[in-house]
Amino acid sequence: MTHDIPKIPDTPACAGALEVARAYCSPALLNHSVRAYVWAAAYGSEHGIGFDPELMWVAAMFHDIGLVSEFDNRTVGFDHASGHVAWVYGAGAGWPVPRRERLVEAVVAHMLDEVDVAADPEGFLLERSTSMDISGRHTDDFPTEFKAEVLKRWPRLGIAGEFLDCFREQALHKPDSSPVASLRNGIADRILGNALDR
After folding, report:
1. CB–CB of 54/14 below 8 Å?
2. What is the pTM of this model?
3. Spatial CB neighbours of 60, under 8 Å, sequence gap ≥ 6
4. Nearest in space to 64 (alpha carbons), one of 154, 180, 162, 185
5. Considering only CA atoms, which of 158, 114, 149 is closest in space to residue 42?
6. Over its length of 198 residues, how does the chain's per-residue pLDDT go in tens digits?
7. In the chain, what are the domain boundaries?
8. FRET partner for 14 with CA separation of 20 to 30 A, picked from 51, 52, 74, 89?
9. CATH number of the domain located at residue range(s) 12-197 in this protein
């Protein structure tokens, strides 16, 4: 099984999403967002899962934007806050409402336990890739050499500790949010034990 580093889609919407992510995300969170796309696109291509590269790139850039202070929403979880930001971005990019709704679905889906690949391929791939990058699930999806090359291009820069701090902060203020359930289910140990950090 061989993998090539997927190319970033070359569209104005993708360039703009990267510009926004660079402006608001820490370097560690930005690299995590890029890796989320790379793992997702590589897995989708390898397994014959049809997906929309532009939509998935934009979803990857915005899936965690609700964790940053400028977009943190004190009434809804970060995944839903991220979805709202993505919807607004899609409107600014001129996307029709159904495409914006698909974008929101993919963003929110990254925190679900299971996503139906037939109904939401981008959400399925994003859930799988973000789970790998943050909590170490599915790290056997790719050969060691491919993982090493991705991490060389987009290093982790301490994402484990930063992300765990963000989740704890979310849980403190939003007791019904997805980070609360994740922390209750032991995600802290999985984040700190992620094989990608070794």
Report:
1. yes
2. 0.95
3. 33, 34, 36, 37, 40, 126, 129
4. 162
5. 149
6. 457 899 999 999 999 999 999 999 999 999 999 999 999 999 999 999 999 999 999 999 999 999 999 999 888 999 999 999 999 999 999 999 999 999 999 999 999 989 999 999 999 999 999 999 999 999 999 999 999 999 999 999 999 999 999 999 998 889 889 999 999 999 999 999 999 998
7. 12-197
8. 74
9. 1.10.3210
